[in-house]
Amino acid sequence: MNPDFLYAIRTCPALDPAVRDDFPMTGIQSHGKPFAYLNNAATTLKPLPVLEAMDRYYREYGSPIHRGADRIAHKATTAFESVRRTVARFLGTPHPEAVVFTGGTTAGLNLVCLSYGELVVGAGDEVVVTPNEHHANYVPWQQLCRRKNAKLVLAPLDANGCLQPEALESVMTERTRIVACSHITNVMGAAMDLRALAAVVHRHGAVIVVDGAQGVVHERPDVVGWDIDFYAFSGHKLYGPTGVGVLYGRPALLEKMPPVVMGGEMIDIVDVYETSFREPPWRFEAGTLPVAEVIGLGAAIDYVLELGYCGMQKKVLGLTERAVRGLSGLENVHVYNPENAFSGVLSFNIRGVHPHDASSVYDREGIALRAGHHCSQPTMRWLGVGATLRASFAIYNDDSEVDRLIEASKKAGDFLDVLF
Amino acid sequence: MYSSDLYRQIIMDHYQNPRNHHLTENPDYCTVRLKNPSCGDDITVQVCLCGGRVADCRQNGSGCSICCSSASMMSELLREKSVEEALELVACFRQMVMGEPCDLDMLEEAQSLAGVANLPPRVNCATLAWQAAERGILQAAAEGVEQGAPGELADGIEEAR
User: What residue spans define the domains of chain B?
Assistant: First the structure.
């Protein structure tokens, strides 16, 4: 991570600690102890403005969008479409029509693969991924390559799990059609310089598809400034609701792409034997979308923009560095990614203790974290382990929760205690 | 009646010194591999029926202490039981870890895992091998796959990695 960037984060104003009170779930207990939610890379807790926006839709104007001529339905449609503009501004594009609402990051990445990938990848072509992708940004490309008799190429990563532009350059060929990588990876928490990677990709005439599920939480994307072709993210990791996500696509590319799911609202004219389809983004939004969730996503984006990314980054960096210091100081702990504190993701293991055994010790202390392969078996292979523990931090966490994580880690060797 | 210290010793002993953990390539065995996708537990169980009895039960895999010790205890318990008894033991173990009443003594050392009933997220770890054995026994019984002579059991058993 660029030292100047980290310095800028450290020197920005701190978030008001009262942010924690915006999240009702921070007040619950687990096993009789205050609940310490440290599984934020899986999903985040939701703030009141998001809950209230969704509740308001259901209580006051829960009507169909694009499917009613009445005043209330119009209000719902307007609210829904205004989120598209909010998302476009958030991502740094002047084109709301470049924003496709999806079910989440996975759905967005699969859409790119099944529509654009099917269109441009042929026998002998190459698709580049990294060995640290989440299954959602790995398996679709792997399977596409199998179907097309194309080659799946793994770009080499540095010791911190970061894809450096030179390393990407080394695997690019004239047959490379697509490069799929994460903005921030979900196990190592490595943050990529997407602007530099996109430049390499475009120099070779390929397109870059970004899994933004983790990245969007910690660094505001600038799809136009960074020259990104596709960027997918989910609402639920960004303090928004589950069941909704966004796929940004470069308008010229979306224009060329055929729809994958057919149904209501995505059509133009349906003749007996032929159908013409609407323009993007509606072409890709068949059926009734999760309206309340889209409205909740809009509220989540408003919420994070109000807090400001710099303050959020400072908070998460501080918590993660505290955890790295504390855990690295323990004899029985191995931390896999001490250099990636910016991402708020900390992957580690207790020596001699299976992560799933350890996870019950944390659970008993009221701490939620994740144990397993984190939907990225390729990363486990890359690390040479079967599974890890992963603690991940968010803006509502505090130092006392980090300290509880460290204390519990000291006792993780007594994992059979939870049975008695 | 066992004490919790003894239970701990039993579990750790099976975890660190797993029983019957060499798999075989003998085609008379019915092999079932099950995974717990959320945590990565991965257990292979092999059963061999002979004369309506479980002549042999083997297991190998990777996972947490609960998953692996459970598989090891099971492999000892099911041996030499009739198909009906073995299926009853599987059902009994499942009841125990779900916190439902059952005849604990029947489970012998496997009752050391009774505390799993207080750890709902770990129930799947404990039952994975038992589920595999149940499937293997039913499959073998349905296919009528039976070992010819009991004396040949050790044939083709390979050292696991």
Answer: 4-144
Digit-coded pLDDT (tens) for A359-409: 999 999 999 999 988 889 999 999 999 899 999 999 999 999 999 999 999
Residues of B in contact with A372 (CB under 8 A): 38-40
Among all chains, which residue has been given the structure tokens 């591999």? B33
The nearest alpha carbon in chain A to B115 belongs to A419
User: Would strands A126-129 and A151-154 be described as parallel, antiparallel, or unpaired?
Assistant: parallel
Q: Which CATH number fits domain A3-30+309-419: 3.30.450.20, 3.90.1150.10, 3.40.50.2300, 2.50.20.10?
A: 3.90.1150.10
What CATH code would you report for A50-306? 3.40.640.10
Q: In A, residues 325-364, which contact B (CB 8 Å cutoff)?
A: 354-357, 359-360, 363
Find, in chain A, the residue whose alpha carbon is nearest to that of B117: A419
Judge whether A113 counts as a catalytic residue.
no
Q: Which of A321, A333, A344, A356 is nearest to A391 (CA)?
A: A344
Architecture in CATH of B4-144: Alpha-Beta Complex (3.90)
Q: Which of A357, A363, A372 sits opposite B40 (nearest CB)?
A: A372
For chain B, the residues whose C-beta falls within 8 A of a C-beta of chain A are: 4, 7-8, 11-12, 38-41, 62-67, 113, 115-116, 118-119, 121-122, 125
| Bond from prior residue into A259 cis (ω within 30 degrees of 0) | no
Q: Is A381 on the interface with B (CB under 8 A)?
A: no
Domain extent listing, chain A: 3-30+309-419, 50-306
ipTM of the predicted assembly exceeds 0.95: no
Q: What H or E segment, with its residue span, contains residue A389? A: strand A388-392
* Shared fold status for A3-30+309-419 and A50-306: no
Rounded Cα gap, residues A276 and A289, in angstroms: 21
* Residues A52/A349, Cβ–Cβ less than 8 Å: no
Q: Is A416 on the interface with B (CB under 8 A)?
A: yes
Q: What is the pLDDT of residues B106-123, one digit of tens each?
A: 999 999 999 999 999 999
